[in-house]
Amino acid sequence: MTATTNPTSSPGGSNHTLFVCKTCASVWQEGKRIGESGGEKLLQQLQHFAQDWDLREQFPIEEVECMSACNRSCVVAFTAKGKLTYLFGDLTVDGCASAVLECARQYYIQPDGVLPWAKRPEALKKGLLARIPALPLM
Ligand code: FES
Predict the structure, then answer these.
(1) Which atom of ligand 1 is nearest to the CA of 66?
(2) What per-residue confidence (pLDDT) applies to 1?
């Protein structure tokens, strides 16, 4: 996995990553995936929006095969050194990409990564699957 980061411009010197499951919302037939999955479509939309995103270098998008929340697709996670890790599910393929990047910005500017419910974009007010404590910064 590669992550392009710029720790000097990141609050708290954190390295951020937006994980996106590309297998979510797949259609399977006889053990094979048919066509493009919902996760791949969401990933493409995020990558498209991120082309003009000022945090694209500090907050790279990484595709992953699965985050074990398959029955709550589509699934993304925000993570950074020294911050809480958030896992969100139930994201729709259409209309969520800009909300995910907006939420990523909120996560980025919070030194501890806390994302209060009231401040999150509508699409991420529900579907919170996990909020994992941060490892201490070394
Ligand atoms: S297929 Fe997306 S979390 Fe498992």
Answers:
(1) 4
(2) 37
Q: Domain 15-38+55-132 classified CATH 3.40.50?
A: no
Cβ atoms of 10 and 107 closer than 8 Å: no
Q: How far is the CA of 80 from the centre of ligand 1 (A)?
A: 21
Banded pLDDT at 54 (limits 50, 70, 90): very high
Domain boundaries in the chain? 15-38+55-132
CA of 66 to the centre of ligand 1 (A): 4
Which amino acid, 46? L
Residues paired with 130 in a beta bridge: 87
**119 pLDDT above the threshold of 50:** yes
Please say whether the beta carbons of 81 and 137 come within 8 A: yes
Asked if the bond preceding 74 is cis, omega within 30° of 0, the reply is yes
> Does the beta carbon of 73 sit less than 6 angstroms from any atom of ligand 1?
yes
Q: Which residue has its alpha carbon closest to ligand 1 atom 2?
A: 24
